[in-house]
Amino acid sequence: MLPFQKSKIITISCIDLSIFGFLLPNLLLCNATYVSHILISNVIAMPKIRIRDIHLYYEIAGQGQSLLFIHGLGSSVHDWEAQVPFFSKQYQVVTFDVRGHGKSDKPTGPYSIQLFALDTAELIKSLRIDKTHVIGISIGGMIAFELAIKAPDLVRNLVIVNSRPDPMVRTLKERFKAFQRLLIIHLLGIRKIAQIQSKRLFPDRQHKELRRLFVERRTENDKQAYLDSLRAIYNWSVTAHLGAIRCPVLVIAGDKDYRPISEKEAYVAKMPRAELVVITNSRHATHMERPDQFNQVVIRFLSRSDTNE
Description:
Blueprint: E1 8-9, E2 38-40, E3 43-51, E4 54-61, E5 66-70, H1 84-87, E6 92-96, H2 113-126, E7 132-137, H3 139-150, E8 155-161, H4 172-188, H5 190-201, H6 208-219, H7 223-232, E9 249-254, H8 261-268, E10 274-279, H9 286-289, H10 291-308
Parallel strand pairs: 1-10, 5-6, 5-7, 7-8, 8-9, 9-10
Antiparallel strand pairs: 2-3, 3-4, 4-6
Helix pairs in contact: 2-3, 4-5, 5-6
């Protein structure tokens, strides 16, 4: 396999708001059991699968090498509606609802990134996937980082979208934003914060339907599970371990994302086989806002990785 150029920057983040307190991962171990599936066209719709102490909802589409997508905070498999039809032509696409999200179980917290990654690793093993490409956005990118570090044998390569390896709160401004977000959720509910976020994520006139869907789907979240998932982000960091990620890594950043490009450049430089691609005129939900550009950037990376194996 040919080595990737270190920290290649071609010219795409994550809202980082803090909740205070430490979270303990749930380490209950249960054997995963399979459930029957229904074949619909080329999509295998799987209801739920037992993973340790919970049931996770997931879907499979297409055939070929496995390509696992991990959604963002408060989202679900719907995050990837613009990606599944495209990538399932060439790959076996696996999407799933993270613990506390969508149709997956929502047990009482605390949650943690480590726990989410354990769930993900067990899902991969239970599906008898030898090794998979992993794509994660926002908190999904954090789960992907943790997975690549703790279970490198399961990860073929990594695509990190608008995420970061160290969301720990350090400044007064970050603490204020965290408090502001929590206050809105507690006083006004998830719908209100979703309405605020939708206007920031999809401000253009042509994004009216995306804004509507975003608010509608976020409002479906269980409030406590959403808060537990938000708490999972903080007091977590893998920055010190980035050098241990030996697989090829593509970091995609929106040029108008919450976090600056310079931050992505800094952590990309810590990984020996990583590169950064910036998708212009896009924000945090780059894969939804600029799906065609996003898909093309990812497929080129995956194709090159496959060729170099």
